[in-house]
Design a protein that fits this description.
The chain is an alpha/beta fold. The chain has 19 helices and 18 strands. The protein starts with a strand and ends with a strand.
Amino acid sequence: MFQTLCRGVNLFGYRPYPQNVIRFTVKEFAKYVDVWRTFDFMNHVPNMIAVFEEVGKAGKLNEPCICFSTGPEHTDEFYVGKAGEIIDVTGEDIVLCIKNHGGLGTPTRIGRLVDALKQKYPDIPIHYHGHNTDGNDVGRITEAVKNGATIIDAADFAFTGYYGPPPILSVVQALNEFGHVPIGLDEEAVIETSEVIRDQRQYYEQFESQIKGFQPTVQIHKLPGGAMGSSLEQASKGGFLDKMPDILHKELPRVQKELGNYWSVTPGSQILWTTAVSNVLGGERYGNPSGDLRNLLLGKYGPFPFYQPEEWIYEKVLGDDWKKVLEEEGGVEDIENIDLAHERYALAEHLGVEPTDQQLILYLQHPNDAVEFFKFEEKYGRVYVLPPAIFFHRGGFDVGDKLAFRDHQGKEHMIEVGPSPVTDTGETTVYLAVDHHQHIFEFKPDVATSEKGEPVLTKEEILDLAKLGDMRSPFAGNIVEISVDEGQEVLMGDRIAIMEAMKMQTPILCEMSGIVTSIFARKGDALKPGDRIIKIDQDE
């Protein structure tokens, strides 16, 4: 069976979506997906109901998750109660997943939780999913199975590492000692497969984590496996790898407790991570809050499960009149349905053709990325037929290189690289022999672009310009939305745009009242710190 991981009201993205988008997406995906593992980072069951209902209508298998973490609040009683809330909605015809996204707790702790769930719901299959970040998930899996879990997650050992499930044969060998034999598993086929794909891993090296090795300190910072790798990548690109010990082992645990000790899983893990990074790099704790942190405090994602942050944090993030803001804007966001016909028309405008339902669904969740992908595919074709050795090849190809591969339908192909002479006018002619037929491609010379040479603005200078009406990008990110039009009157504090960085969306707010006189950025633009967004002039 084919399985997916769905974030409930956040679907396959990082923000809450309208109900009609959720139902449309699940209905379309359910044509291809048999098992729906659905979770919510606040363990707020109402956020998952629409997905549960649509999966049930499609006759597919619901696998709701309870997200696991550690701390004094995270008791067996809490998780058994949460399972009860889920079952009240779905009934008992489900698989119940324990989602241990970071690989937290000891083997004994996981075994105790599985036992508590099986004592209460003996007929419901338990699926344990964990990460091997600290190297201890084989032990957690063993205890889970000994206490009644019947489904576990493991990975092909040629592609395992540190921040995903443990290697499958290691798990099998450990469980065999206790008389637990996997049903229908061909160990020789597993070995043969791993030997085939092991050679492919080298082509993914550029995407792997900058830091190799197990991370037992995950028990302190609690970052999930996926976020662990991407966080290290962001730190490397951002030039603050040296700050990671302070961020991971001091600030992140502190932020976790201050914000309610909820579950560090998408999008909650991004909120915690970006907040901790901002606190360390910015120098002022909670001084530069993201829009998602603001929404968290407003309760837009659901109620805090255990306790609320202290008042000083609300004041830092929401302002001096935070109590009034909380009263007027607080509560789970009731997102209005959107006009799907209008969105389909907007996508057709981008593509120049009528989009399919599948294209529309991708666009509704990831507008910028989806359009870029569709245009890429239109220009270069369906490049998934290329193996990693070719698609991820670095450094170009030499004359005479022969690229042999088999496409997804099993057909053999051969590409031979020919010469690429350059004419006096700078045009390049590329000769390729594709399946023994010659193809010639003409390329015009690249037009050299001059560097603007604009000085890099400091955070303080960007804020000073904003107070004069010259709104600049405060960080590197993409424009998700331009919220105003030229000629529009705006007031101080109004939202003029939304930017996205590190999967988090942040509103850009007016620092003065006036009239929008110029708009420099467009939806989808990638901006650097200090790039211009909008000009506001005072209304004389």
